Amino acid sequence: MILILDFGSQYTQLIARKIRSLRVYAEIVPFNTPLEKIQKESPAGIILSGGPASVMDKGAPGIHSKIFDLGLPVLGICYGMQLMAHVFGGKVKRSNTREYGMAEMTVNAPDPLFSGIPDSSIVWMSHGDSVKTLPPGFKELAGSRDCAFLAMRHETKPLYGVQFHPEVHHSFPGIGILKNFVKKICREKGDWRMSAFVERTLRELKERARDRRVLCGISGGVDSTVLAVLLRRAIGSQIKSVFIDNGVLRKDEARTVLDRFKKLRIPVRFIDASDRFLTQLKGVRHPEKKRRIIGREFVRMFLSELGERDLLAQGTLYPDVIESLSVRGPSATIKTHHNRVKEILKLEKEGRLVEPLKELFKDEVRELGKELGLPDEVLWRQPFPGPGLAVRIIGEVTRERLAILREADAILIEEMKTANLYKKIWQTFCVLLPIQSVGVMGDERTYENVAAIRAVESVDGMTADWVRLDPRLLARISSRIINEVRGINRVVYDISSKPPGTIEWE
Prior knowledge:
33% helix, 18 strands, five-stranded parallel sheet, alpha/beta
């Protein structure tokens, strides 16, 4: 397998995901993992991730220099390259021009790392520091207009560094570079399968649960459904599934979820807590406060169902973890998430939290669900945020505004399915804006709400681009929403990408 030392990059798990897509197992460990433990793992190669720190900062994350003496191939990415250069005596300085986003890479020397890679290609940059002087014994492999040493390698050892992020989808030769490192340099065969993950996870779940009950919160999405099926297979009747209607679900969602789990033969305890959640949200406008309220109420309700010896299972994915707090390295917080609040973290410290999917991305969970035999209607259900429609209503959440958004969103999803686009697009949804606009309907002046449509394509949810929908489809969606949803007289289309925006508006 390939071992990834995490220095806190938002993209660290993308490295593992891309390598696993090559059918090679990859595992992430903290940057300060003891050398003895690394040797015990017997990896075929090591990758040093990027990170937000500077090697010039006091207390910056470091590495045991003997890692480079193990005889293993090592690839440093961004901060990992700078750290490698620093350890070997090179000079790292603040760049005159910081590079964020696309850059044109020119390959200057032949090497197995760039086998089959064009001499000129587009890569994704995200750095403020760069290597200004190569360490003794290293040579340049590639450069760009603003970065002389975009890639380097040791002249006699299999030690490599790249300043860009090959793991990011927008680095067009990125998967080829990772494939070359893993298969040509580390000589991995590529025979790992998702079935191996299933077997290992079932064993671990049985071992964790033993004779204890496991409380599983479900939403009907692919993540929690896959989790429930895994638990059911591993521990049978020891699972207790709970579905809470928080009042901010989509149209007919509660009924759809309950019917689906009935078909899967998994018993579910249903709790209608709409009034409780909407009362707490009354008058609240700030998105983070809405997230905290919903997260807190979820936790309180689930904890009230949790017995003294029970374990709590969650369908947390890696983007939820990496964007909400630092779990391994010194990564930056992007947003709060209801799966990562203090009460949940307390259970984690007590060894009572079960999160078997937290190393996976959405596409990997879908692959896992397919391995488990789940139907397409579950596998291809688009992501839906934990706080639900509360973060798709900009401003205060009221029953009236929820009813308006539900109807508009239902029309949008229906049209996307009719156009055979629902499965092809990462996420499609409506947002109700906190403004009203003047309109003319039936020869009368109206002053009603504005709805925004959001449709994005993505591979893993970490980066996303807006979808260029057919104008005729947009016109049909707009016409139907305005004509069929009382309270909306204008529809706009969001053409922002992530970054700099996020997929959700709040």
